[in-house]
Amino acid sequence: MNRRSSRSRGKRTSSRTKHPPRRRLRFALVGCGGMGRYHARSLLGISEIEVVALCDVVKSRCLAFCKEFFGPKGFKPAVYTDFYKMIARESLDAVILVTPHTLHYPHAKAALQKGVHVLSEKPMVTTTAHARELVALAESKQRLLAVAFQAPVSAEFTYIAELIRSGALGRIELVDAYVAQQWKTITNGTWRQDPKLSGGGQLYDSGAHMLNAMMWLVDSPVKRVFAMADRCGTKVDINGTVSVVFENGCLGSIACLGDATMTGDTGVTLFATEGTIKTGIWGEKLEHFDKSGEKILYPYVPYKTVPPERNFVDAILGRDTLRCPGRYGILLAELMDAIYESIETGRPVDVRHREDFQAFRP
Ligand SMILES: NC(=O)c1ccc[n+]([C@@H]2O[C@H](COP(=O)([O-])OP(=O)(O)OC[C@H]3O[C@@H](n4cnc5c(N)ncnc54)[C@H](O)[C@@H]3O)[C@@H](O)[C@H]2O)c1
Known about the structure:
Elements (H helix, E strand, L loop, with lengths): L2 H16 L6 E6 L3 H11 L4 E7 L3 H12 L7 E3 L2 H7 L4 E4 L6 H10 L3 E4 L7 H14 L3 E3 L7 H12 L5 E10 L1 H4 L8 H4 L7 H13 L3 E9 L8 E8 L4 E7 L6 E9 L2 E5 L6 E4 L5 E2 L11 H9 L10 H19 L3 E2 L12
Parallel strand pairs: 1-2, 1-4, 2-3, 4-5, 5-6, 7-10
Antiparallel strand pairs: 7-11, 8-9, 8-15, 9-10, 11-12, 12-13, 13-14
The structure holds nicotinamide-adenine-dinucleotide (NAD).
């Protein structure tokens, strides 16, 4: 090494040590209900961010939430009951939307218009037009728009995606998925059974995890659907079945049960030419069978599950790509529009895609 390079290296090192630490990203969490609690815990574990604002229409809930999660850590986020006041007053880098489904669109739109990154709970929105509009807005503002599905960031789905990418699983010929929950009983009297706030029933709630997981794994959008549903005396779909064919020719069979007696069970099985995979709609389990049907015991999974918030922050900081970008919000909305049309008309419906989906999974 010559003296010049040695000196300049020394200089760089000292200037690096004197450089002030990067400021923390300023986050707001919107919706201090059940799922807000998961996001709060996760956000508190991310050192590169600070939650500077909380918002919930129920002030007492927001204050109690603030006291429970942020007080003990010495944080004092500002508390709001009006999202638009918060967006106008606070200088934010990102918001996390954990509110009833139909509120995601107006809040995401207002945030993106102000140049704020958005991580939305699922479903991102409840109409195709809204999904396309938000994705276009995020692109024009050069801000991130992501959906907080857990499965795509799970170690299990990363393992399966790698098996598919490497060709080890062969071609997926059929996918079978189900979710069974006491959804009708648990959500009775809540916004989830009010179409104005939910946009739909169990198919748009836990069903969203299942449909997104299938499209993410099969790595292809759905082309055609034939759906049936039973509202079981409510205003939204409770039990539903959907037959699908994906753009790549794979077939799919879906059962979404909201009036089950069991508290919760899910499954996604990929039947492929070189083996079979069994997992769950949240990536909560993994079984791998080889081509001869033998179970591969304890498959080695060299990946870590990354919480959606961690992936979102890493993507903002340019360290990672989004595992579930807003584009999946479009795919789900297009699929759901077709599913509900099929339920209403009693006929198979082609899913109306506008994009070309060659490179599908991020
Ligand atoms: N990823 C998952 O596994 C998972 C699990 C549960 C819920 N979710 C999603 O999280 C979101 C919230 O569900 P939840 O179970 O927490 O519901 P919840 O009813 O427990 O909480 C929603 C909160 O939003 C608040 N809210 C309503 N309107 C508001 C507004 N205009 N501004 C601010 N806050 C408002 C309510 O007061 C409530 O505190 C939904 O999109 C749901 O699908 C995801």
